[in-house]
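During the reporting period, our protein records have gained a structure token line. One record among many is quoted in full directly below:
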Amino acid sequence: MKKNLPWIVTAVFALWILATAFPNCKKEGFDYYAFGKLPAILNGRIQPLDSVIRNSLLIIQGKESVALDEHHTLSAIEWGSRLMMKPDEVDDLKVIQVNHPEVKGMFGFPDNQKYFSFNNIMTNLGLLQNQVDRVVTNKIEEAQQTPFDKQCLKLYSVLHTYVGLKCTLRPEQSDDFAAELKTYQALLPSGIAAVMNRQQGKKVNEDDLERFAALVEGYDRMRVFGQARIIPQTSPGQPAEEWVNIGTSLTESIKSREISPVVARYASMVSAYRASRPDDFNRAVSDYSQWLRDKFPVAAKKGARESFFNFLEPFYKCMVIYVLAGLLACIAWLNLAKWTWLTQTAFRLTQLAFVVHTFGLLMRMFLEGRPPVTNLYSSAIFIGWGAVLLGLILHKVYRDGIGLVVAGGMGFTTLVIAHHLSLDGDTMEMLRAVLDTNFWLATHVVAVTTGYASTFVAGFLGILYILRGFFTRTMSRELSQRLGKMMYGIVCFAALFSFVGTVLGGIWADQSWGRFWGWDPKENGAVIIVIWNAVILHARWGGLVKERGIAAMTVFGNMVTSFSWFGVNMLGVGLHSYGFIDKAFYWLMLFDLSQVMIILVALLPMRMWGSFHDGGGASPPPRDPAKRQAAQPVSVGA
């Protein structure tokens, strides 16, 4: 049974992954999954409505589901569908995140509450508007804005995102959009004539003019606030950038005097949804999906593929499996249990997670049409992938479980970082012009990021060395030397890729900005990584450090690399300061503090270590004098 247990556990997790890849989203009869696959244009790219809603909800709430009560939740697509078609059902749900105490105080909100409803905030919108107007009118630069100012601007942006979703499919005051469109079509000739007569001072039909103006006013609001462009205005095969939102399509119909048939299709969906007619809704979605596949196959396929990717959630599932595999590997590696099946189970689970991780990475590349690293989020995904690959290689070479601990720990940590980076919304947004070149993204960025991953792996091994050597008595001479060889080999690998990536970056800079090197903070951070890895290697070659010393130095390498990865973006200066994340500063400082604490532990006298003092090793000294001499603890001075 134990022999087959690793395969059984792995099969269970594989089935869990496959079961969620094709969800049954027909709640109360509505096919939300099919609706979510419909394509839209937002942030300069084609994406499904499911992505539009998920990313908007992440911006608004920081999560991809909405709590109804302690036991029930709404999925992102169901919440978004209600917001776009029946907003009265969700406007009172507490989904808008407000953290700043002064902002809460301005609204009179309780300080111990974190989420508030749209209606809560709209009641006192004037208070927020005054603060935003003050910042805008006085032209207060970001560097001079107080945390209160920044939070007011952020909340205002969140409300804009919320209203943008509400205005995507229907005018806010419309109850039966399909019937209203027919009325609007009938009113177009007389309404336009009434407007022209009014402009010329002629007698007009006031009733027609009033009804027409009320409809146009609602459509104009959709034009202004609606974010997603879901109406194709071009012929099949033409640029997708010509798509418009429903409001724009309807206001432009005043000139063309024709309503887009796509608007009518969406209006049918909205009316069926509001009338609780799931069969009619599903039929309208199915008919439109088929029309898209015939007329706009590229957009239809891209929407369907990205929707599948969203529901699969490969990186979340990898994160869950990595943490389990890492824990099992830790138990086996620390000899807390002498069950070989633990190591085998950890190995099989890590392999499964790595396959899913690779699939997710390749799927993102396919959807974007780009190399693996295009922004901070994708860099975290790629660094985790590279670290797991190195961990698996270490396990194949040494077969002692250390590589699995590295793979599980690094895979989980980097994917957690990626998850928090995704809270700012779309992670596949269009690139800045300076980055919009696949060749350099596939060479310089990938090489530098591989150097990041390798340096972090070496630092993780250093952390394992210090923590196990200090807090346990299980660090044997053989294990210490093995970890030292691992750290040394990984640092060699990191130094190579860091150097090559930095040189390629200089060539890219010469082509883009006309200079090879400009002492930009990002460039400085990259070269510091190269220099520090070289310092570690020379210190080891010169005999200045042994295993304990190289462990402490690799941990310091974590601080150097994290600064180049995140820290330079927080300086707000230089040509690379386009990935600023205000909230990341706290976590970066906390991470650096933890690394300093670990280095201080490494520098404590050896008499304070659990291992490496007075025979403190993995097992008692042998009785045979010759064997006792061979088993003496290794010298681990710095």
Remarks:
- Residues 111 and 164 are 28 Å apart (CA to CA).
- Strands lie at 26-27, 30-31, 39-42, 45-48, 65-67, 73-75, 94-97, 115-117.
